[in-house]
Amino acid sequence: MVRLFLIRHGETSWNRESRYISSIDLDLTEKGKAQVLALSKRLAGESISRVYSSPLRRARQTARAIAEPHGLRVKVLRDLREVDFGFWEGLTYGEIKGRYGDLIDRWSSDPTSVAIPGGESWLEVVERVREVFRKIFRENPESKVAVVTHGGVIKCMISNILDTDRLSLWKIRQDSASLTIVDLVEPDKGTLSLLNDTCHLGNL
Hints:
Number of helices: 7
CATH architecture: 3-Layer(aba) Sandwich
Strand order of the largest sheet: 3-2-4-1-5-6
Distance between the termini: 33 Å
Order of helices and strands: EHHEHEHHHEHEE
Radius of gyration: 16 Å
Strand content: 15-25%
Number of strands: 6
CATH class: Alpha Beta
Largest sheet: 6 strands, mixed
Mean pLDDT: 93
Shape: globular
Number of domains: 1
CATH superfamily: Phosphoglycerate mutase-like
CATH topology: Rossmann fold
Helix content: 25-40%
């Protein structure tokens, strides 16, 4: 069995402003840095053997904090990057709705039926997330592994494990610096053991 500690990166300024963020490479805020330090302390006692990260700075900064107590180097995997939001990047939900009508509502209800303008198709996201987690599973038999990535990627992974790819996806909450745990017995078969836990954050 492979235990995956799925970690969403700490807060950025666009997270705080509820803006859609994918490829824009923002740093963590001071609050975000405090969040990941708290999560690092929580996981310091776990026997984590490897730490993977998205290539984006907010994830890499989070991953370094998680890896440090274990004396590990962070392995960056490009396919752990966030969903590409295309022309929606940097906009709030209200701004997107104002410019694109009900397109975002239809995408939220069924992402397979709508293409994000200038962005990534849902099938592309699903396939790359499946493949990157298959790779992680193969590389880490009988291990505990931390994977620092983004809300959309974690939601895809959870949906894959729960055998649901559409309507329930955006009903899964993923807070900044949250911890989700998945126990895999096969690359695409496992148990969701913990979801979006933030008890380590206290009043942060």
